[in-house]
Specification:
44% helix; binds flavin mononucleotide; 2 domains; 278 residues; NADH Oxidase; alpha+beta; globular; 12 helices
C-alpha cells in the first residue's frame, strides 16, 4: 500500500466518484478504505510480466481470507498456455483481455480435496453432495479471490473477474484437468493496464437501497433507481461510448434466458461435474 498511498483519492473525491450526487455522510477513513473505494475493473493489459513472487503473494493474500469452518474448499489454477487461454477467451464470448494479461487465474470451488481426505481416512463425507457444500465452496473461492484483487490493486496492478467462464464450465474443466468435485467459478485477469484502460470509478447504487436498518425497506428504490440511471448513463457515455442506464443493463443481462449464454444449464453442468446439489 505504501507505494500507492500518494495516488489514492481523498475521502470526498472517493465518495463522489463512487456515489455521484448521492454521497453518504463521511465516516472513518484510511488508506486501505481509500484503496477499496478506488477499485475499477480493467479490460486492457500491457504484456509486461509481473515481478517475481507476485503470484505467490496474491495467493497468500487469498489464503488469508476467512474460509467457512476452515474447510478451505477452494483452489486456483493459473493458465499460461496460449492455446488454453484461447479456449478460455472463447468460452467467455471472445474477451480479449484473457489472452492479453500476464496472469490469468481460474478460481475453483473445490470439494475434491476434502473428498480425498475422507477416502484416505476411510470416512466418506456424507455432507459433500449437498447444495450447502457447493455454496460454501463458491463463497470460499469468491472471498479468496477478492483478497487477491485487493492485494493486486495495492501493488499497482489491475484486475477483472471473468464470470463468463461459467458459459461452459465443462469445457473449462476439460482444459484445466479438473477432477470431479471441482468447478471453475470465475477467472481473474491480473496485469498492468494499457494507457487509458483504467477508466473512471464506476458509480454504485445510493446506499439507501442496499443498506437497510432493522427491517428491509424497498420504499426508496424508485427514486434512487432513477437517480442512479442518470449517473450510469452519464458514466457509460464518458467511458463506453454508449448511454445505457443501469436499468437497461440489468434487463439486457438477465431479462431473457438467452442472455444467460448457456448458464441456464449450470445446474445440469454441475451435476455432471460431481456436484449433486441435493
Ligand atoms: C463474479 C464476477 C464476474 C465478472 N465477470 C466479468 C466478465 O466476464 N467480463 C467482464 O468484462 N467483467 C466481469 N466482471 C466485472 C463486472 O462487470 C464489474 O465488476 C462491474 O461492472 C462493476 O465495475 P467495476 O468493477 O469497475 O467497479 C465480473 C465481476 C464479478 C464480481
Amino acid at each position: 500500500m505504501d507505494g500507492m498511498t500518494s495516488r489514492l483519492p481523498t475521502q470526498p473525491a472517493a465518495l463522489a466518484a463512487r456515489y455521484g450526487a448521492a454521497v453518504p455522510p463521511a465516516g472513518p477513513w484510511n488508506a486501505m478504505i481509500a484503496a477499496l473505494l478506488d477499485h475499477r475493473s480493467v479490460r486492457g493489459y500491457r504484456p509486461d510480466p509481473l515481478p517475481p513472487g507476485t503470484l505467490e503473494t496474491l495467493v497468500a493474500a487469498a489464503q488469508s481470507a476467512a474460509t467457512s469452518s476452515n474447510l478451505q474448499t477452494w483452489s486456483v489454477v493459473t493458465v499460461e498456455d496460449p492455446a488454453a487461454r484461447a479456449v478460455m477467451a472463447e468460452v467467455a464470448g471472445g474477451q480479449k483481455h484473457i489472452q492479453e494479461c500476464p496472469l490469468f487465474m481460474v478460481f475453483l470451488a473445490d470439494v475434491s480435496r476434502n473428498e480425498r481426505l475422507g477416502e484416505a481416512e476411510g470416512k466418506p463425507l456424507e455432507g459433500l453432495p449437498y447444495l450447502e457444500t457447493f455454496l460454501v465452496a463458491a463463497i470460499d473461492a469468491a472471498l479468496a479471490a477478492q483478497n487477491a484483487v485487493v492485494a493486486a490493486e495495492s501493488l499497482g496492478l489491475s484486475t477483472v473477474y471473468i464470470g463468463a467462464l461459467r458459459n461452459d464450465p465443462l469445457k473449462v474443466a476439460e482444459v484445466l484437468g479438473l477432477p470431479p468435485g471441482v468447478m471453475g467459478v470465475f477467472g481473474l485477469c491480473v496485469g498492468y493496464p494499457k494507457p487509458r484502460a483504467e477508466g473512471e470509478v464506476k458509480p454504485r447504487l445510493p446506499q439507501g437501497v442496499v443498506l437497510h436498518r432493522g427491517r428491509y425497506d424497498a420504499g426508496p428504490e424508485p427514486t434512487a433507481r432513477a437517480a442512479y440511471d442518470a449517473e450510469m448513463s452519464a458514466f457509460s457515455q464518458r467511458n463506453e461510448m454508449a448511454a445505457d442506464s443501469w436499468t437497461q443493463r440489468v434487463i439486457a443481462r438477465i431479462g431473457t434466458v438467452r442472455a444467460l449464454r448457456g448458464r441456464d444449464r449450470l445446474a445440469a453442468a454441475l451435476q455432471a461435474m460431481g456436484f449433486p446439489l441435493r
